[in-house]
Amino acid sequence: GKGKRKGKGKGKGKGKRTCAPVDSEFWSKKLEEENRIVLDSEPLTGICTLYKESQGWGWVVPDDIEAVPQEARDKMAEELETLKASGKEVKEENRIYFRKPDVEADFKIKKDSWVTFQVYIDDKGVGACEVSNAGGDDGIAEEAEAEAAPEA
Questions:
Q1: Which residue in 120, 135, 111, 138 sits closest to 57, CA to CA?
Q2: Phi/psi zone of residue 77: left (φ > 0), alpha (ψ -120 to 50 degrees), beta?
Q3: pLDDT band at 41 (very low <50, low <70, confident <90, very high)
Q4: Confidence (pTM)
Q5: 144 class by beta-carbon count within 10 Å (0-12 exposed, 13-18 middle, 19+ buried)
Q6: Residue range 136-147, pLDDT digits in tens
């Protein structure tokens, strides 16, 4: 009879959730709301330390923090203090946030990819934009280092 069968259960029928496509209005709205200012500097180099493809965001760490514009470094220091004050553990102090639309369209970014990027500041903090491949064919740092090492 009615009511004796189990329901649909948790999570059924929701489908696989992924981040919005790059050309989605979602990203355009976010960009407008955050008052982004791209800082004038030479493109920076670094490595992607994390990329959550399903959520559309990640972290890059610059090779040389001194090359990052002072305005951005000041803002990064403020963010770090806020995180530490709230009791959060920060594994990499010089990490810079980026999101899917800020990655070059034909670049399949992943952890350990060598990248070049520009830096911006907005209402939320510091971010990386114009993220592109800096490490050859696939941009993976470990493979490039292994090729450079002499064979035994």
A1: 111
A2: alpha
A3: confident
A4: 0.71
A5: middle
A6: 655 555 544 444
